[in-house]
């Protein structure tokens, strides 16, 4: 958050004199309490100042940057995920391509009975398949998809920062969001409950930036 000069001054004053009332801060700055009020509200909402009724303002000791980092660390995949767009392994390539257009997505999640994760197929997988003599009406997506256990997945409680790191590390555009289940033999299976994409990450970036604006940044 970018503070204006007056907000910077307020922080300095509170650091030097805390606890200090709004009234006193206004006196020092030679302003009216009413002029000062919006700045105090912004700084308190941003977590840079703490207000205690009938005592006054304290400095929270937090810097701007650490506040954004704190907020980012608290965000979870589940709060930003999109709905999964799924097909079966037997779905032919033609229908996969049509589904991608209709749903406006860049990849599909391939599931078996009960929404269990089996694979992922991206637009380049499909493009590659159509370069050969493939009969797109006949060939099932199971032939060209990337298959478990090679799928990189995430889960609703995962911090978005860690999920974003996986996307970068593995050079992929999206990951299925899964719920881990156990089958009768105690083996893990993964129920697909969402999709976490680069677009979701862009939305997070915008939200963090807009928090700055709401908090009175320039
Ligand atoms: P594209 O290259 O088509 O724009 P991606 O970068 O997401 O899309 O996919 C690149 C390759 O990685 C493709 O072969 C795709 O099947 C595979 N892939 C995509 N998502 C995942 C994932 N979550 N886990 C493992 N492999 C994936």
Description of the structure:
By secondary structure, this protein is α+β, with helices and mostly antiparallel strands. It contains eight helices and eight strands, in the order H-H-H-E-E-H-E-H-E-E-H-E-H-E-E-H. The protein has helices spanning 5-17, 22-29, 33-45, 64-74, 93-103, 123-131, 160-169, 198-214, and strands at residues 49-52, 56-59, 86-88, 107-112, 116-122, 146-147, 174-182, 188-197. The chain has a four-stranded mixed sheet. Strands 1-2 form a two-stranded antiparallel ribbon. Helix 2 crosses helix 3 (33-45). The longest helix has 17 residues, at 198-214. It is elongated and about 80 Å long.
Q: Compute the number of strand runs.
A: 8
The secondary-structure element order is: HHHEEHEHEEHEHEEH
Note the main sheet. Answer: 4 strands, mixed
Which overall shape is indicated by the principal axes computed on the Cα atoms?
elongated
What integer value in Å does the Rg equal? 26 Å
CATH class value of the largest domain: Alpha Beta
CATH-defined fold name of the largest domain? CBS-domain
From the N-terminal CA to the C-terminal CA, the straight-line distance is 8 Å
**Whole-number count of domains:** 2
Small molecules (ligands, ions, cofactors) in the structure: adenosine-5'-diphosphate
* Portion of residues within helices: 40-55%
Order the strands across the largest sheet as they lie in space.
3-4-5-6
Helices, by number, come to: 8
- Mean pLDDT level: 91
CATH superfamily of the largest domain: CBS-domain
Note the beta-strand portion.
Answer: 15-25%
What is the CATH architecture descriptor of the largest domain?
Roll
Structural class: alpha+beta
Contiguous low-pLDDT stretches (5 residues minimum) are: none
